[in-house]
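A quick aside before the break. I want you to see a complete sequence-to-structure record at least once, exactly as it would be stored in a machine-readable document. Don't worry about memorizing anything.
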Amino acid sequence: MSHKKKIAADLQSALSGQSPLSIDLYVEVLADFEDELKASLDKDADDALLCMLADDGDVAMLVIEWDGSIYRNENALKKLRAMWRHSFDVNVQILVPILSDHISQKNLGVAGIKWLPASSH
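That is the input. The structure line, written in C-alpha cells, reads:
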C-alpha cells in the first residue's frame, strides 16, 4: 500500500469511528498549530476549519468554528457529524483524498468549510 493510500485509509477509519483518535499525536503536533489555524480561519472567512494529521496509523483532528471554538479529536468528530448531518459520508469521500495528499507531503491536512443553505425539499 502506498504511503498516501495508507494515510487515506487511516483518515477514513478515524472518521468512520472504527479507530480511535490519538491524544498523543494531538498534543505532540496539532496543539502547536491551534493559534495559527485560528488566524487562518479569520483571514479566509470560512465558517469552520477542519485539520487532520495521520502518522504511523495514529490520527488526530481539530475543528475550529468561526467564533473561535476549538473541538479536538472525538469532540471534533462529533461536531463534524452534527455540522454535516445529511452529507457526512459524501463530504468525507471528497475530503479524504485532499487531506491525505496534504499529509503525504508532510503538511497538515487542512480544509476550510463553508455552510451551504439547506435545500428546501
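Two observations worth writing down. The chain has a mean pLDDT of 92. DSSP finds five helices and four strands in the chain. We'll return to this after the break.
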